[in-house]
Structure formats: C-alpha cells, structure tokens
Amino acid sequence: MGNLIDIAVIPGDGIGPEVVAEAVKVLNFVTNGGKNEIKLTNYKLGAEHWLETGETLPEETLEAIKKHDAILFGAVGAAPGDTRIPSGIIEREMLLKLRFSLDHFVNLRPAKLYPGIESPLANPGEIDFVVVREGTEGPYVGNGGSVRTGTAHEIATEVSVNTAYGVERVVRDAFRRASERERKHVTLVHKHNVLVYAGHLWKRTVEMVAQEFPEVAHDYLHVDAATIFLTTDPSRFDVIVTDNLFGDILTDQAGAITGGIGLAASGNINMDRTYPSMFEPVHGSAPDIAGQQKADPTAAILSVALMLEHLGLTEEARTVEQAVEKEITSRQELTDNRTTSEIGDAIVALLA
Amino acid sequence: MGNLIDIAVIPGDGIGPEVVAEAVKVLNFVTNGGKNEIKLTNYKLGAEHWLETGETLPEETLEAIKKHDAILFGAVGAAPGDTRIPSGIIEREMLLKLRFSLDHFVNLRPAKLYPGIESPLANPGEIDFVVVREGTEGPYVGNGGSVRTGTAHEIATEVSVNTAYGVERVVRDAFRRASERERKHVTLVHKHNVLVYAGHLWKRTVEMVAQEFPEVAHDYLHVDAATIFLTTDPSRFDVIVTDNLFGDILTDQAGAITGGIGLAASGNINMDRTYPSMFEPVHGSAPDIAGQQKADPTAAILSVALMLEHLGLTEEARTVEQAVEKEITSRQELTDNRTTSEIGDAIVALLA
Ligand SMILES: CC(C)[C@H](C(=O)O)[C@@H](O)C(=O)O
Ligand SMILES: CC(C)[C@H](C(=O)O)[C@@H](O)C(=O)O
C-alpha cells in the first residue's frame, strides 16, 4: 500500500505534450510497484486552448489545480508568426498567473554541465550551480502603465516591487540550499549601484540571513558582471540568488553554457506548501519541431526529479537524476537522431 | 592652420589615468601636424577626488565640462573593500549624472572579435555587431523609493520610465547605423511579454521607424533569448537596439565573448550635439592592478576612435582603428607582458 500522489498535468502547446508524455513515463515507472500510487489529471491550457475557447486560465480551473499535490507543466506559447493570439497573453494570464496565484516564490533552476555534453564554451570547467530566482515580485508584478499611448508624448512605466517579506523568504531558501551543498556558497546578483532601493533591500537581507548560516560564505555581483563570469568562469558559482528578471536572464544564459535549455529543468516552488508547486522544463513550446518527435524530453524528465525531491521522494528523485546522467553521458553527440520517446525509453531502461 | 578640438579629460580612478595617458598619446599623434590642434583640459573627479573633497560632480564643474567639444573618460570607482565611500555614489552622482545631464541618449558599444584574440566561446564565428543602448531612460532614471525601510514590512520599488521621445530617437539612430553597415539588420531586444507597457512602446516604435528604412531588416528577441544567441550564435547580430538596463547586461556579455571588456570601447553620445559626448572604455577602474602599468589601454584607445568619428574626423578614426586592429592581430597571447605604455607606443608606432 502506497501514498497517493495526485499530480496535475498541463502538457500545453507545441512540443509540450510530447516531452510531458516521456516525463509521465518516468514518473510512473519510478514510483510503480513501490510505496506510491500516481494519479494524473490532465488540464488543457495554453495557446491552442485559447484559440478554441478564448480561455487563458479560468478561475474554476485554477481552483481545481490548487487541490493537487504538484503540477507537471510542459510548455506554452503560439508560433511566433501567429498573430491571432495577442502577444504575451498566454505567458502572463496563464503561466505567470499560475506562478503568482500559487505563490511560487522559489523559481529553482539548476545548471549542470553533464559529462558528454558539449558546452559552447571553450573551457567550461565543471559547471554545477543552482539559480534561486525569486518568482513572485520584482519587475514581473505587472505593475506598469502608459499615458498618451500611441502618441509622440507617450510615457510607459514598469514598476519593480520588492518586499522584505518576499526577498527574505527566497534568500533564506538559497542559504538553506547552499548549506546542504558541498561548496556552501551564495552569490547575490543584482544591480544595487543603479537600482538603489531594490538593490539595498536585497543586500541588507542577504547580510541578515547570512548570520543564520555561519557555514555558508557569500558574495555579491552586479548582473552585468555576472554575465561575464558565466562566460569566463562559470565553475565559480554554487548558489545564485537573484530577482525575478535577472533570474530570467541568467538562467537562459546558464542553460546555453550547459549545452542548451533542452536539458534545463526548473521548479516553481511554494516552500510553504500552501499551494502545489509546478515543475517545468525551461525551454518553450518550439512550434517549429512540434509533433515530430524531435524534442529532447530530458529537461522535462529532470523536472520530474525536482518534483519528486519536493514531494519528499528523495530516493526516487536521485534514481531519476542518475538514470538521466547515465543516459546523457552515453550520448555521442548532443543532437542525436533518436525520437523523443526513444530517449524517454532509454532513460526508463536505465531505471529498471 | 587647423581646427581646434577642445577635449575634457576625466582620467578618474585606478587604472583610469594610465589608460587615458595612452589614449591621449594616440589622440595627439593622429591629429598632430595635420588639420587639427588638440586642447586638453583635465578634470579631477572620481572616488579619490571624493575622498579628498567630498565632491562628486559640482555644478560649476558640470557647466565647465559642457563647454568642451567632447569628453575622454577613464574609469571611476573605489576598491571593492573600501567602505569609506557610500556604495554606488560615484557611479550615480558622477558617471550617470554626466550621461543624463549631457543627454547621452545613444550609448554605443561595438562588439568585435579581432583576429588573434581568443574568445571564451568554442566556435565564436565572426563577431562584429554594435549595441545601441538607450542612455537616458529606463530603470536608470533613479525613480525608486522605499517605505518602512529596514523593517520586516519594507517595500522597495524601482520605476522604469520610457518615453516615445526617448525611445524613438535611439531607435532611429540604430536604424541609421544599420543602414550604413553591410548587413543592414536591427534586432530589438526587450521583454515585452512581461514588461508589457515599456515593451510595446519599444516594439511599436521599431515598427514605425523601420518604415523610414526599407533597406534595413529587423527582428525581435526577448532579453533572455538574446543571452542564449550571444553564446551560441553571436555572428547573427548586426545592430542591437535595447533599453538602458538590458544594454548594460548584454554589452558586458558581448565584451566577454569578444575577449574581455579590456578591449571594449564605448561612446555616450548626444546625437543632437546640444552637449559634448563622452567616450570611455567599458571596463572599470580595476583598483587591484592600478598604478602598475598592467592595464590594457586598447579599449581607451578604441574609444578615441569613436570620439574622432563623432567629431567628424572619419579618416583619423579609421586610422586609429586600423592601427589597433593591426596591433591586436600581432599579439601572440591575450595577456602579454608589455606595460600599458608599451602597448600604447606600439599602436602609435603603427600610426606613423
Ligand atoms: C515565458 C516567460 C514569461 C518566462 C519568464 O519570463 O519567466 C520564461 O522566459 C521563463 O523563464 O520561464
Ligand atoms: C558603473 C555603472 C553605473 C555602469 C552602468 O550600469 O551603466 C557600467 O556598468 C557601464 O556599463 O557603463
């Protein structure tokens, strides 16, 4: 007799359903016959769904999603040329609405260069860090506006909102994660010489929380300098903690230097567990290769590992990670010719 | 009989004076005996000056600087550990104050991988693009604040201010520059799926200005995706136009992939010529190697080329650029053992 693990699945658009199918395969396999039973509920959301229904994320759907233990998310987004869908509407009214409504204050994005994966950097060194990106504040709050719109006198503003409450909880999470890692090092990334008020709130908070973790060292980098070190010396990083927008930028760069965001997993985590956390590959819906079994499901599968970890199934999480690592290491080239489901099957075979 | 070119020189802190000395050497040489006479006026400003006097940029000094034809700027900034200087004060009340007071709306930052320079990228390809960074708006306006500061209930905000006036002039500048380049291509970088109001002002402005330049193609990238392409395919870029903060981030990354910001030049340009423009290496004051003749003056010398170009001395600008290119190409290793002034002399020798 096992625990019932009740997962909401949002396959989404483009390659989303294909990679999620492989993630589900792995999820079922690793928990199967063991202590746990998986219950999956599919939610049709995304650009396709919007085209059919005009819905982004209805209140009832959001309420239903809140009842699950966790969310497995594929990818959403229309084809770039598709002008039928107002730009950004799915991102904001669905993806960001989930992150904000479910209070996903830790946007966790590990960056690891696996053996066998080619980095675009000439001398990448050992890359193994995590970015703890704030997920519910900063310039993402949607607090902008414009006046005299469309005229020569237009003024458009965007307001970054940062609270002691919001910054402290994510900084504490970063230090806790660092304290459990080997190198025990936190780097705050911001731009406090220009963004004085937000920057100093972050700096002061790091100084304060650091006192609770005397075993964890910490330093500071301006965001511009951080992009340099991600290029010249990424192995210096252990845990990066940063705001929502800087985290968005740095994690795409982190994905690139570790062999592409096709491998990058992420968790949108509510550490207070008041609402379910959501696990998603960093990549988008890639409409150009959708439905062709060309997508790499690895990022989605690694997101399952993050989900298992969050659900307390640490051993299962480790098993998935190790199988993925083994599978990746065995690849001869980054772009192999196997189908999406062949890669999923290869990982399942290694779990067996 | 020649023109009188009246230059304000702000050597600044750290390695600033050393690299500026070489830049001045080149400036004197290239205009010497020719049609022009150079008049140089030194202004002592920066962290050192602040420690001595408590002044950042007094009004009289600013007014005096406004009278020159152009400004040659070294670098400012205290040593990182120096707690005597309030963090960011020199950057904001001196460097940014100059950029804003002198209406430097085009922050021009070329990124070129010179033959002979090693890129940290494994397959950099041909890198030769310019970033046209907006210089007087965006999150840099200093429009932030905080309430309940220092308490658990603190709220800190930063406001990004964007105007049709400010965006249009810099976008038009980018298209004009692109129209004079071989590939004639502009990429707008922003994050309009999240920063809706500012992002759409930028997008609409690009669409509008593009109509004046039918020969220039244009596309759009979110800032996070831009960091990926700067890693995997930087040769795709020709002219990037972007806001003040995204430009800050991307140009440091651009410096890194082209062999380090030790080579990256920049111009803070007032295209309306209502005030003098300012030319500065992208690198900082590097206090750790200051006064040791270890700094590479190349970025400062390339900034002189941008200055000459802006002053209409196109031929002289080209001469400096070509000498620098020749000198760089002849280097065996990026970090050679020559002193700052030996490198300056080598470039002057190639001018002769
Ligand atoms: C799609 C977009 C809103 C999203 C973000 O900016 O957070 C994406 O870039 C990401 O990083 O998950
Ligand atoms: C020193 C700092 C204020 C400045 C900026 O952010 O613009 C610097 O990083 C630059 O890029 O010139």
TrEMBL record, chains A, B:
<keyword id="KW-0432">Leucine biosynthesis</keyword>
<comment type="subunit">
    <text>Homodimer.</text>
</comment>
<feature type="binding site">
    <location>
        <position position="109"/>
    </location>
    <ligand>
        <name>substrate</name>
    </ligand>
</feature>
<feature type="domain" description="Isopropylmalate dehydrogenase-like">
    <location>
        <begin position="6"/>
        <end position="347"/>
    </location>
</feature>
<keyword id="KW-0464">Manganese</keyword>
<keyword id="KW-0560">Oxidoreductase</keyword>
<dbReference type="InterPro" id="IPR023698">
    <property type="entry name" value="LeuB_actb"/>
</dbReference>
<feature type="binding site">
    <location>
        <position position="252"/>
    </location>
    <ligand>
        <name>Mg(2+)</name>
    </ligand>
</feature>
<dbReference type="Pfam" id="PF00180">
    <property type="entry name" value="Iso_dh"/>
</dbReference>
<dbReference type="GO" id="GO:0003862">
    <property type="term" value="F:3-isopropylmalate dehydrogenase activity"/>
</dbReference>
<keyword id="KW-0100">Branched-chain amino acid biosynthesis</keyword>
<comment type="similarity">
    <text>Belongs to the isocitrate and isopropylmalate dehydrogenases family. LeuB type 2 subfamily.</text>
</comment>
<feature type="binding site">
    <location>
        <position position="224"/>
    </location>
    <ligand>
        <name>Mg(2+)</name>
    </ligand>
</feature>
<keyword id="KW-0520">NAD</keyword>
<protein>
    <recommendedName>
        <fullName>3-isopropylmalate dehydrogenase</fullName>
        <ecNumber>1.1.1.85</ecNumber>
    </recommendedName>
</protein>
<feature type="site" description="Important for catalysis">
    <location>
        <position position="191"/>
    </location>
</feature>
<comment type="pathway">
    <text>Amino-acid biosynthesis; L-leucine biosynthesis; L-leucine from 3-methyl-2-oxobutanoate: step 3/4.</text>
</comment>
<feature type="binding site">
    <location>
        <position position="99"/>
    </location>
    <ligand>
        <name>substrate</name>
    </ligand>
</feature>
<dbReference type="InterPro" id="IPR050501">
    <property type="entry name" value="ICDH/IPMDH"/>
</dbReference>
<keyword id="KW-0460">Magnesium</keyword>
<dbReference type="InterPro" id="IPR024084">
    <property type="entry name" value="IsoPropMal-DH-like_dom"/>
</dbReference>
<keyword id="KW-0028">Amino-acid biosynthesis</keyword>
<keyword id="KW-0963">Cytoplasm</keyword>
<comment type="function">
    <text>Catalyzes the oxidation of 3-carboxy-2-hydroxy-4-methylpentanoate (3-isopropylmalate) to 3-carboxy-4-methyl-2-oxopentanoate. The product decarboxylates to 4-methyl-2 oxopentanoate.</text>
</comment>
<feature type="binding site">
    <location>
        <position position="224"/>
    </location>
    <ligand>
        <name>substrate</name>
    </ligand>
</feature>
<keyword id="KW-0479">Metal-binding</keyword>
<feature type="binding site">
    <location>
        <position position="133"/>
    </location>
    <ligand>
        <name>substrate</name>
    </ligand>
</feature>
<dbReference type="InterPro" id="IPR019818">
    <property type="entry name" value="IsoCit/isopropylmalate_DH_CS"/>
</dbReference>
<feature type="binding site">
    <location>
        <position position="248"/>
    </location>
    <ligand>
        <name>Mg(2+)</name>
    </ligand>
</feature>
<feature type="binding site">
    <location>
        <begin position="284"/>
        <end position="296"/>
    </location>
    <ligand>
        <name>NAD(+)</name>
    </ligand>
</feature>
<feature type="site" description="Important for catalysis">
    <location>
        <position position="140"/>
    </location>
</feature>
